[in-house]
Amino acid sequence: MATPRKFDIDAVVQRLECGETLTAIASSLKMPRSTLSLRIEKSGGSARVAAARKVAAAAYAEKAETILMGAMEPFELAKAKELAHHYRWTAKCFSPQEFGDKIQAEIDGTLTVHIDKVV
After folding, report:
1. In contact, 58 and 19? CB cutoff 8 Å
2. Contact 67/83 with Cβ under 8 angstroms?
3. pLDDT in tens, 24-46
4. C-alpha–C-alpha distance, residues 2 and 24, integer Å
C-alpha cells in the first residue's frame, strides 16, 4: 500500500499566488478539488489561501491585459475580450478593495440633535 504524501500548503499557496486555479492544482495532485479544499481547511491554511488569492488578483488583471494585447484577428479579439472580462471578474472577486467597483455614497440633508441635560 502506498503511503500518502504529506500535504504541502506552502506549495499550494505559492501556486495560487501565481494565478493558478484550485481546480488546476487539484488536477496536478491527482485529487478532486473538494479533497484539496478539505486538506487546505484541515491544515489551517484557509486564511493563507484567501491572502494568496488577493495576490493572485493582480496576476489575473495582468492576464486580461496580456490576452487582449496578443489578439491579432477579429475572432481572437472576441475570444480575448471574453477571457479578459472573466479574468477581471476573478480579480474583482479575489480582491474587491483593489479591483472592485468603486462606490461613492453622497448624503445630503439636515441632522438635528437634541441634548437633554440629565442631573
Report:
1. no
2. yes
3. 999 999 999 999 999 999 988 88
4. 23
The grid coordinates listed for 62 are 495582468
pTM, whole model, 2 decimals? 0.63
Q: Report pLDDT digits (tens) over 53-88.
A: 888 888 888 888 888 898 899 998 999 999 999 888
d(Cα 116, Cα 84) in Å, to the nearest integer? 59
Residues whose CB is less than 8 angstroms from the CB of residue 38 and which lie 6 or more positions away in sequence, other chains included? none
User: Which of 3, 89, 15 has its CA nearest to residue 45?
Assistant: 15
Q: For the chain, give me the number of helices (H) and strands (E)?
A: 6, 0
Non-local CB neighbours of 99 within 8 Å, separated by 6+ positions = 57, 61, 88, 91, 92
